[in-house]
Design a protein that fits this description.
- The protein is mostly helical.
- It is 63% helix and 5% strand.
- The protein contains ten helices and four strands; from the N terminus they run βαβαααβαβααααα.
- The protein has helices spanning 23-30, 41-48, 53-65, 74-90, 100-103, 109-128, 143-154, 157-160, 166-183, 186-223; strands at 4-6, 38-40, 97-99, 106-108.
- The strands form two sheets. A two-stranded antiparallel ribbon has the order 1-3. Strands 2-4 form a two-stranded antiparallel ribbon.
- It is globular.
Amino acid sequence: MSKVTTLTNPPDIPEEDTGPTSLCDVLDRVEPRDGEDAVSVETMLERIGTSSFPAIMLAPAVLLVSPVSGIPTVPTFGGLIMVIVALQALFGRKHLWLPGFLTRRKIKAGKLQRGVDWLRKPAAWMDRHSHGRLCFLTRKPLKWLAYVATIAIAVSWPVLEILPFVTSFGAGAIAMIMFGMMTRDGAYVVAGYVQGTALYLIVLALWGGLLGSGLGTSVSSFFGF
């Protein structure tokens, strides 16, 4: 495989396919097929199709909400995928491009299946409660805010991966934003913005407390307090 990959629909996905229309549809497309020992990122994204950037970002985001996020480095690589895809959406690319070192990444079929099964019930609930609300948030120019928010949330995951549940919480925010974009339901987009903002306010507060504590200790030691 070359160092970079431009993804297009594979032979079993028709060219007129417009991508998933529900979260359960996303899960159906990414789950492993019979006989597969592992599923690559390239395979999952091609099964989703390349016509819907929100659906492409929704897949890794929702998987990172599941126990799959506990696999070392998976949150980092998932975050990189979402940042790269969001940037291409912002610049209006028609065909998705990803570097080969990302598309070659694989998840063992058993772990992927457990993650998909874990997500089935919440996915069905979200699908049932999706309606055409606040649709203006999913259209230009406000739809660009969704991609910017995705980048802002995911870009810090290589550092935050060491903190338990933080990346899963952030992935949940992105999943709600992209689910809202895919289904034209602005209520989910708002929920994702609120969750993402709350997460990083908490992280900043904790980080500030740690810095303050460390600085205070250093100053006290210097002056012999």
